[in-house]
Amino acid sequence: MPGPLADGRPAADLLADLARLRAGDLPVRGGRVTAYVYDTGRPEIHDAAARAYLDLLEVNCLDPTAFPSIVALERDVVGAVADRLGGGPDTPGIFTSGGTESILLAVKAAREASPVDGTPQIVAPSTAHPAFHKAAHYLGMEVVTVPVDPATYRADPAATAAALTPRTVLVVASAPSYPQGVLDPVADLARIAADAGVLCHVDACVGGWVLPWLRENGRDVPPFDLSVPGVTSLSCDLHKYGYAPKGASVVLFADPALRRRAYFASAGWPGYTVVNATAQSSRSAGPLGAAWVTLRAVGADGYRRLAADAMDAVDRLAAGVARIPGLRVLGTPDAPLVAVASDDPGLDVFVIADAARSLGWYFQPQLSFQGVPANLHITLTGVSAVGPMLAALAEAVDAARAAGPAAVPDGLAEFVAGLDLDALDDHQFAELLTATGDGGMAAVNAVLDALPPATREALLIRFLSALYAGAV
């Protein structure tokens, strides 16, 4: 590994090799990884989803007329999601591989539904997910970024209205935004969009399948879904707070005509008929089957309990963070997402993250941006053990305070910013990483934090290339 393909080997040996490779991965159960993974705490449900995934693994969603089960399953999943998110049983939607693909399809639909002279524009708050920038990059569009309120981190309706132009085809709202877990003023943004004759997409990828249950539990959740006048599409990930295996999201549309704008068909060749509901062509029905089983196994009562437990964990975590000198929570989370920042110059959140990792906990570093300080993102679920989490966080804070901020060699950030990265091959770039010394990821993040976003992006792309080239 890597190497030429050899003769076939026994399956047991290959699975043993796979287990050894997995040994260095973060754990996907137990709640110590506060990003990327979601755990119900009910292994029987995860096992049932895995069996459903395997049962449909080789069913190809490329042609729903060949495999009618996928139509039935998708209609049921989309209908269940729409029922909780302001739609009816016939609300049009598409099952996708994840939030990025759901957003990509919503952006494509908006572009197709609203032809403009020049480059189409998306108006989005600075906290909107990068998936909108990715969609714009792929679809020949541009994103007009609007700063958020510096105290609440919510989108600014007045600034959004001022950013609209004749080329605007879509206004974006987040429910909630990922960085701080706060809900944008969806009704205000949707009204502004509707008054201008512009479509409005609500990115509820992370919150869409927890906010409705929080409302049913008595939490104050402002309207954010398809029931809000002016909202024309909405995305909701089921592999987040739906607790389904990865590869499960839904994008809903206010009317079938807009959904059709998301589709793709091609008949300009002598082969089989091509019509795709998603950005993919061939794709396994495994995630669809697993999502269907998970939704039906957890059920409404289960989701209400999981949501209540997750939000209770937020309250306890926020209270605990307030008792740790030097730390504060950014904003007031509306969903089970918390951003923890430092107000002590001698306490570096990137060093805290490294120290926590050594204790077996993963807190996700987030770089500073447009006045939002660097912080640690923590996604809480129904199985989050807040007591041990706070204990680990406090211990990591003590270690970080003793160690001091990440040591970055003088002038390194400026030197990196002036590099011609295209002149370096992957191995030369990997050697450059050694210039951060033995400061771990904290030093790497500190360098990135000192650079403008465009330079950060160029470095991240080079890092990914070097990683897959085996240079790092």
UniProtKB/TrEMBL annotation:
One of its GO terms (molecular function) is aromatic-L-amino-acid decarboxylase activity. Transmembrane segments: none annotated. Its cofactor is pyridoxal 5'-phosphate. The modification N6-(pyridoxal phosphate)lysine is found at residue 240. Keywords: Lyase, Pyridoxal phosphate. It comes from the Bacteria. GO terms for biological process: carboxylic acid metabolic process. Its EC number is 4.1.1.15. Belongs to the group II decarboxylase family. Sphingosine-1-phosphate lyase subfamily. PANTHER family: PTHR42735, SPHINGOSINE-1-PHOSPHATE LYASE 1. This is Glutamate decarboxylase alpha. It comes from Actinomadura rubteroloni.
